[in-house]
Amino acid sequence: MPRPFDRPKTPRLLLFGIVLLLVCLTTASPPAHAFCGFYVAKADTDLFNRASKVVLVRDGDRTVLTMANDYQGAPDEFALVVPVPTFLERGQIHVGEPALIDHLDAYTAPRLVEYFDDNPCRRPRFEDALMRQVQESAAAPSAGERARNLGVTIEASYDVGEYDILILSAEESDGLETWLRRNGYHLPDGASRVLESYLKQGMRFFVAKVDLAEQAQLGFNYLRPLQIAFESKKFMLPIRLGTLNADGAQELFVFALTRSGRVETANYRTVRLATDHEIPAFVEDDFGDFYRALFSRQVEKEKLETVVLEYAWDMAWCDPCAADPLSADQLRRLGVFWLAETPGARRVAPQGAAQDVFVTRLHLRYTADTFPEDLRFQETGDRTNFQGRYVIRRPWTGAPSACPEAREYFRRLDERQRERARTLASLTGWELDDIVGRMDLPATAAAEDEDTSWWRRLWPSR
Fold first, then answer.
1. What is the spatial distance between Cα 398 and Cα 121, in angstroms, rounded to a whole number?
2. Who contacts 106 (Cβ-Cβ below 8 Å, separation ≥6)?
3. Residue 393 reports pLDDT greater than 80
4. Cα 237 from Cα 39, distance rounded (Å)
5. What is the DSSP letter of 435?
6. Helix and strand tally (H, E) in the chain?
7. What integer pLDDT is reported at residue 431 of this predicted model?
8. Best CA proximity match to 201, nearest among 374, 9, 4, 378
9. By three-state DSSP, how is residue 152 classified?
10. CB-CB contact of 140 with 63 (8 Å)
11. CA distances in angstroms from 88 to 21, 143, 150, 254, 345, listed in the order given
12. In 3D, which of 104, 4, 59 has the Cα closest to residue 379?
């Protein structure tokens, strides 16, 4: 991919906003929308329906934005309308690689890890103390003439990979809406009001459609992401237009790559995902369900207008790794323009060594009511590592009679099992009875009599 900022600078200052508004042809149907643990499972974005992914590469006023569309349907029914602040040149628009976004998604996904309890008859290894220390340090007329009659100007047209792209400007939202409808687009109710708000900011629009013949010639049977490079003092992501044709809440994952550190939202609360909890071992088989329930529960508790931080880490390493860190070559292809070019290089920095890329993963569930404003971001400069991490601990399999310490170990194991059950119920909202019924309890946690189990003795009101 050409380096996006090697072109001569223009006097224009790009005040950029981006919204994913998927519209379809009127003849088509609407689209369906150092922890030392062992990595076990990850929870990536594929667990959610209507989940859009955006990668924001940011340094100073320069940004490269990659949009992964969640559109599902025939390619000839697809179009993407993107508000932009000014004219975009052909060299500022590229087609990206979905595999790179998938890799970044996997690398930053909340993960499940497991530990194995030591033999209590041996000398303690102080693992718990070590883990706490690590956690504390871790964060007819021509088309142009017809458009002009409506106050719409086609400023440029580009062929970018399998996409046909038009750059439009308009005097009034009614004219722009009429032009879109006359050219075969079906706009959702309320589009005129939102289009007008962007026109008042002096924004332009680019419209991307799929060139089926070019797509067939290139050999792709899926829609590749679009990338845009621009300069702007504003670090933002408009989302309002994308809510108009939604049939419910939408999921948005933002992956921010910076040099300075963690990114957060400036006009909404950014809260950390509940993390570093021990949970029952059976969750290994249902980690996707656990993560969905956990996220929904946290959103409900935090109420409205909350963005959840799921990952913040130096790109050079990970612990534990849900996927390998992206190489310098992969990062450059995502638009990390400040990394030095090294032909053929795919090396990443050694584990523990600082790399000049810090990744932040943000997750929000939004509607027009819960997020009435576009997202505005700020770089914090905080390079503290953070991840969504959940722990299952495998018990020691010896006998209570092996040594005096073993008897105490099993007594404490019973207590830990109870605590894990309570923790899982609190994190997910799942019924405690159902959780206990699925737990693989040790033999020493059996009931003292046949009628009452240990957890009913502990919580008799249940």
1. 10
2. 42, 44, 322, 323
3. yes
4. 33
5. H
6. 11, 22
7. 93
8. 374
9. strand
10. no
11. 18, 20, 22, 23, 31
12. 59
Question: Please, which pLDDT band fits residue 240 given cuts at 50, 70 and 90?
Answer: confident
Q: How far apart are CA 183 and CA 348, in angstroms?
A: 48
Task: Give the whole-angstrom CA distance, residue 362 versus residue 308.
Answer: 6
- Give residue for tokens 């049939």: 247
Predicted pLDDT of residue 257: 97
Report yes or no: 199 and 151 within 8 Å, Cβ to Cβ: no
- Phi, psi (rounded to 5 degrees) for 274: -55, 130
Structural contact between residues 232 and 61, judged by C-beta atoms closer than 8 angstroms:
yes
Cα–Cα distance, 232 to 379 (Å, whole number): 14
Q: Where are the alpha helices (DSSP H) in 39-126?
A: 98-108
pLDDT of residue 127: 46
> What DSSP state is assigned to residue 274?
P
Q: Per residue in 344-362, pLDDT tens?
A: 444 455 544 457 899 999 9
Give me 230's structure tokens. Answer: 């621009």
What's the CA gap between 399 and 134, in Å, rounded?
A: 32
Length of the chain: 462
What type of residue is 399? A
- Whole-number Cα distances in Å, 182 to 84, 175, 457: 22, 10, 71
Count CB atoms within 10 A of the CB of residue 299. 19
Report the SS3 class of residue 327.
Answer: coil
